Here is the input.
Amino acid sequence: MSSASIPLDRAILEALTYSDIFDYPLRFDELHRYLPVKADVTELTFALAFLNRYIGNRSNYFFLSGRDEIVNLRQQREAHSRALLPIALRYGRILGSLPFVRMVALTGSLAVLNVSKNADFDFMLVTAKGRVWTARAFALLFNRMIRPYGHTICPNLIVSESALEWPLHDLYSARELCQMIPITGMDVYRKVMSVNSWAMEFLPNASVLSLRGSTSGSNEAIPNSVTKRLFEFLLYSKLGDKFESWEMTRKIARFSKLPGFGEETVFNSEVCQGNFHHHRKWTREVFENRLSALAAVPGGEVYPVTSSPRTAMRA
Here is the structure.
């Protein structure tokens, strides 16, 4: 169903249903941002007044009826996440200073302040062309350095500047794009969002150039250090080409033996995407099951059919 054909009341329930998977009630501005149809705030306010039987509203959060307990849960997770956020931003800035790294963005549950435990720090990296695996090696070296502090960096998505468009155009990818927090490389971030403007088909009220990092103070300039320039100069060579090829070949051979390889993982010279847990598939299946519980009634009204609680994974 195209977004243009979804009634606003159903669109509201769909947005809340998706977020409910992760025990994540939405503020009014977030609900508007994640609607799958184009609507202004006045239209949304009016529509919400006629859905009070099917949605709840407490402490300025909206949620599906009967799920008010997730308000406290979000508040607890947000407090925990805010304590972790400065650490993640600091690590992101260090990642941005590594050789061949052109952009760093925080992704995953921490990007929406919904960490349920001491989770890994998830990042998307954009690298110089032909140096995806070399940049990854530097990132993992940095990860080893911070392990004694009890932290783990997960560069789950690394792409080169020549592969900025996400191959899968779906709601999951659109949400990931619009939720991530850029930390370094704002010019590249703008290119990423521009190339992936298809996300507006799924989230027409979200600005693809929202520059979320500007609200966190994270998008400060990273000096192009002498050390970074020196490493890049030395590794833009035949020796560097051999290391890149060797690192890619041995890592892909290792990854190919792991459970979950192939279905949601992409490993080649331009992309390193490790999602061995099939989080996209899990989210899609749960969402589709929940949508099947949205039953239409005469007059175009929709209502959610009660289902058993889900165990949230991560946003």
Remarks:
- The first helix runs from residue 8 to 20.
- The beta strands are 55-58, 61-64, 101-106, 121-127, 153-160, 181-184, 266-267, 271-273, 294-296, 302-304.
